Amino acid sequence: MHALRAVVSSERPLHEAVRQFKRDLIAMTLRATQGNRSEAARRLGIQRTYLHRLIRELEIQIPPGRARPDRPAPRRETS
Fold it and tell me: How far is Cα 3 from Cα 35, in angstroms, rounded to an integer?
């Protein structure tokens, strides 16, 4: 709701206001899903790949996710 008020009360051009609204909405959804991009995409009603592209294009910082005990830590190659 805060994001919507910021867009409505701004005097920015429409394109900039929409871009900021998208950034705020995606960031808020990522926080709500603890950084789980698949769940965030589902909640937003968009494809996961499109969400990844928006994150990159809008330069959104992804919050650290919760630890997933069902997945082992990635292996590091040693030389």
Answer: 19
Distance CA 64, CA 79 (A): 29
Contacts of 25 (CB under 8 A, 6+ apart): 3, 44
pLDDT, tens digit, 9 for 90 and up, residues 26-77: 999 999 999 999 999 999 999 999 999 999 999 998 877 654 544 555 666 7
Q: What are phi and psi of 76, to 5 degrees?
A: -105, 135
CB 62 within 8 A of CB 35: yes
Q: For tokens 């997945």, what's the residue?
A: 71
pTM to 2 decimals?
0.68
Please, are residues 32 and 41 in contact by the beta-carbon 8 Å criterion? Answer: no
Sequence letter at residue 46? I
